[in-house]
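Predict structure. Chain length: 206.
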Amino acid sequence: MGGDYYDAFLIDGGNKVCLAFGDVAGKGVPASLVMSRIATVVTNVMTFVGDVREAVRRINDQMCARAIEGRFVTFVLCVIDLRTAEMTLAIAGHMPIMIRKTDGSIFEFDQSIVGVPIGVIEGFPYEVSTRTIERGETCVIYTDGVSEAMNPKNELYGMDRLRDLVKASVGGQADALGKVILGDVRKFANGRAQNDDITIMVFGRN
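Prediction complete.
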């Protein structure tokens, strides 16, 4: 039973793709039940609401209405217009998307746009950011099961190692990069049992 959540589906008559990604606080059955609920809420809201700011507000308010104490969700809602490659996103308490640019450098959205997790404050005014995904760029969303994976020496995998791995990857190969990240995390753990859910979503423009 896991508490990580991810989904990808077309909206606006197939002209846009919605990406939803989250990490429920806690583990086991209670976390998985909250994950199941937010999955339903996201699908219902995005069926009728095209504006990302309004959508994340409604998702948060619906989760707050039936909140379980201590079971908040860090969350990313991202809508990509397939005609223009413009990405619009809201981040609720989660790590910002990591984008590998064509020159190999890493772009990350500023922490100032990160709002509180979903299910904490009803009516919270989330910020929305937009950015065009350029040809050859690759975007990575991940849960803290990646950055906080530990080896037998109690060392953390860490953000610097993840950034270096993404920098060294081949641009535009999203499917391959996801597998490389997962493989590197397991190699780093060196046999240590996994202590948290690990979820990675990688996408890009070719």
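Summary: The chain has a mean pLDDT of 92.
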